[in-house]
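User: Teach me something about this protein's shape.
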Amino acid sequence: MNKIKNISILGSFFGLWIATLFSQNSQIIVAFTLIFSFGILHGANDLVLIKKVQQNNKTLFFVKILIGYIVIVGLGFVLFNFMPLFALVLFILVSAYHFGEQHWQIIGSEIQKWKKFILQFIYGLFVLSMVFYFHQSEVQQIIFGITQFNLPAYLLTTLFVFSGILLMLIACYFSIISLLFRTRIIKEAFYLLVFAIVFYTSNLIWGFALYFVLWHSIPSLADQIRFLYGSFNWGNFIAYFKSAFLYWLISLIGIALLYYFLNETKIFNALFFSTLAAITFPHVVVILKMTQSIKKS
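Assistant: First, the predicted structure itself:
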């Protein structure tokens, strides 16, 4: 995992350098390409993962899981259509936990679950709040496009400050109760500094893509491949890609059709994040089940 983190650091600064060579529009194209490749791919194998978790390869079980997955995604779309503000807040909260849970899997079983949950949730919320804080006007436009709600900028600033204070307090507490956390605190503070530099110096989509792909999707892919095949290597990545290819392709076709029929940047951005949110809800549940299964074994 340390190798992946080192690659993420190098990739982040390389991404910042690349951004100086391209226009804003070119950055957006490359950013969406990264999200559509590794970003979408890391959530495309959820059905295979849940079959592995449940240790059930029967066709009927697969059909039930597929129907359940579609229903959850459908409910996400319904929420965004009829209760967009509630759905957006829920998406942010769920994503915050999902990002934090992925980053802080290393915290061991000696820590109570509810304490780990708080650390993971506040950590992820702070990372998202950094994105929002450094790109307030862009975030406000996207939120208005989804919900028709004019979000005051001070709320984004408040979220950033409040979550930052909470994270510092939690970090102090975990430094007392966890030796592992104590040995990692300087490294983790450095990672947050890297995130801040990336978000501050990049536009919204480029900065989010660098974090989402390098710091979340690729580490998540590595965890999933280890869970499915026992180790993370090139051969097992190819096996994972073959297994996920059909679901990944369907997702890309859906997004392509979305862009084709709604070829207007503001509307597309709003609906793209809505689609991403709807897919995220079941994905978070699957990854949580996978993590629990790994810890049990």
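Now, about its shape. The radius of gyration is 19 Å. Residues 39 and 212 are 7 Å apart (CA to CA). If you'd like, I can walk through any region in more detail.
User: That's plenty for now, thanks!
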